[in-house]
Amino acid sequence: MKNKIEQMIASWVDENQEYLINELKDFLRIPSLTGHEGEAQKFVKAQYEKLGMDVDVFEPDVKELFEKYPEIAQFPTSWEPELDLVIPTSDICTYEKWLESGYADKLNYKDRPNVVGTLKGTGGGRSLILNGHIDSVTVGDINRWEHDPFGAEQVGTRIYARGSSDMKGGILACVKALKALQEIGVKLRGDVICQSAVNEEHAGNGTLACVAKGYTADAAICADGGFLIRTQSGGGIYWKIHLSGREVHTGGRWHGAQMYGVSAIEKAALVINALCKMEQQENADGVRLSLGIGTINGGTYATNTARECSISGVAYFTAAMGVGDDGIKRIKELLRSAINQASDNDPWLSEHRPELSFLHYDDAYVYPEGHDLLPVLLSAGEDMLGKTLPIGAVSALDARHLGNRGNIPCLICGPGNGPAHAPNEFIDTVDYLNYIKFLALAVYKWCG
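and the corresponding C-alpha cells:
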C-alpha cells in the first residue's frame, strides 16, 4: 500500500494525464534534429521558467572543450549527410583540425544552446542532476514511416514521433516530475539541476559543456534509454580505412607471370578478414566487442582494377574493454594492430599501408558500486510501481561525461521504449506517466 506522498504523486499524475500527454505532443511536434535544436530549446526554457528555476542558456564553447578535455572532446555534428562525421582524424579530434577543416562555419553551436534549470532547495539535502539531450537523429527514409515523424500522432497508447523515445520524452518527464512535487506542496532540501543538452548524437559536447561550466551534484540520472536502470554504458568508435591499388584495364592486369594491376577492393578483403578475426579473439570469453562494417566504396569501372577503396564502420565495446580514455585507446590499438597484421602479411599492403582514421569516439562508463542512488531508484520502483526495475547496461550515452569527467555518480533510466534511431519511433503514454510518478518519488527520496 502506498504511503501519503506516493499516493499524492500518483493522484496528481492520474488527474492531469490529459494535460501531460498533450504537452508532450506539443513538444514532439517541434523538430530538433541534431544541428537544429534551437526552437525546441525555447520550449524547454519556458518549461523551466514556469517551475521558477534559475535558467542558464549558453552555447557550448568548442575551444574550451578541446582545451579542458583534449582526449574526448569531439567535432560538432549535424544531421545532414554532407555534414555528419565529415572531419577525419588519425588519432584524436583537435581544435586546430576543426578550424582547418573548412567546416567550422557550418559545424558549430551558433543558435544551438544548452538550457540548464536549477531548482534551489531549502538547504541541507542531497543535490541531483536530471540530464537529457534535446537532439534527435535524422528521419531517414520517410517512406518507411507510417506516421508523420513530427505529427505526434497517437494510436492507442503510443505517440509516434522522431525523438519521442530518444529522448524528448525523458527531458519533459523530468520537468513534470518536479511539477508534480511542487503541485502537491513538497519543498525539497537539495538542489535539482535539469539539463537539456545539444548534440549528444555523434558528439556529446552538450553535456560535456555542462560539466566544463561547473555544473555538479551529489548524483545524476540520465533520463535516456528504456524504463530500466542502467549501471553501465558502453563505448563506440566510428572509423574509416582507405586503401590504394594500381588501376589498369583488366586485360593488362598481368605482365607475364607478374601481377601488375592491383585492386584496392581485393586488398580490402584482407583487412576485413583481419578485423573480423580480431573481433572473434576479443570475444572468446564473452561478447565485449561488436564490430560493424557498414560501407565499402571503391573502383570506377567493372573492367578496371580499383585504384582506391574505403571501408567504414563502427566498433562498439562494453566497459569490460576499458572505461574512459583507456577503453578508447585500447580499441583504437586493436584496430591498428589488425590492419598492420594484414599489411605485414601481404607484399602490396606492406608497401602501400592502409590509412586508418577516426570520425568519432565515445568512452565507456561504470556507475560506482555501493553508491546510494541505486537503492533509492530501486525503492522508488518498488514503492510507486510495485515492481523491481531490472538492472542492465546500454550503449554510449551522456552519462559518461557526468561520470568520467564530472565525477558525478550517474544512473541511466528513462521512459523511452520505442525503436530509437528507426522509423516509427514512439513513446508509450502509460510508461511515460508511470515514469513521471517514479521519478518524482525518486527525487523526493534523494533530495527531500
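(Above: one complete record from the training split.) The CA atoms of residues 59 and 110 lie 7 Å apart.
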